[in-house]
Amino acid sequence: MKRKRGGAPDPAKLSLNTATTRAQWGLAEAIEGCARHGIRGISPWRDQLAAMGVKKAARAIKAHDLAVTGLCRGGMFPASTAAGRRKAIEDNLRAIDEAHALGARCLVLVVGGLPKGSKDIASAREQVRDGIRAMLPHAKAADMPLAIEPLHPMYAADRACINTMAQALDLCDALDPRKSGALGVVVDVYHVWWDPQLEAQIRRAGRKRLLAYHICDWLVPTTDLLFDRGMMGDGVIDLKLIRSWMEGAGYTGAHEVEIFSANNWWKRDPNGVLSTMKQRHQRYS
Ligand code: ZN
To answer: Which of 51, 186, 235, 264 matches a 20 to 30 Å C-alpha distance to 206?
Structure first.
């Protein structure tokens, strides 16, 4: 097994996922913040995008010449009724349009867990497959790649029943066997760092299916399942090793920092968070 670690990453690849500063900043401030700190990429969340307005956001992002490394997020397909599933698909079609308006590199899909009252995870996974299949034609027409984000299995019930890279890539192979570029994956280290198959699955994904790369760190101990992600360098993830796998597989895209941190980073001065992010990206990522 190759264990080559590269040098410091290209600072131009750093991107801010706005979840990282969501407690302190709205989208307009996050855009300004990126511009001020020389961070060249941004990945907005749709609630913040709605609050700012899509047109206004697109203009501000363009004015600062930021790359939109993804739009978070579509997905959440499973529902207990056919009407509920249709509603989810309609919302996903709108998400494609929003991503297109921003010139995003992909629409991130957090696929959803079990419908309320259900214990049938196999059926939830089928609903995910059907949902993505239903939105693919619109995504292709808009030239907007869909990026499935496998989530750590601790979220299988309530957020995403796609939990490993292998599972996400099987779905890609089923729905887009020709690797058209319309469907791929997000590698978020928080969710997949532990997977013994990670290196092999990154290689399997290859350049065409590796659409985004989310970084942060896994803290020991982790005190909250959702809101206790660490800054790069503060935990146990070998980020340089995983980046070497990504690059080895042909990934040339951004390194997007996504940190949900209710008790630490969300309580800090956001300008300090961005400065730390830049330093830690260079040092540990
Ligand atoms: Zn992520």
So the answer is: 235
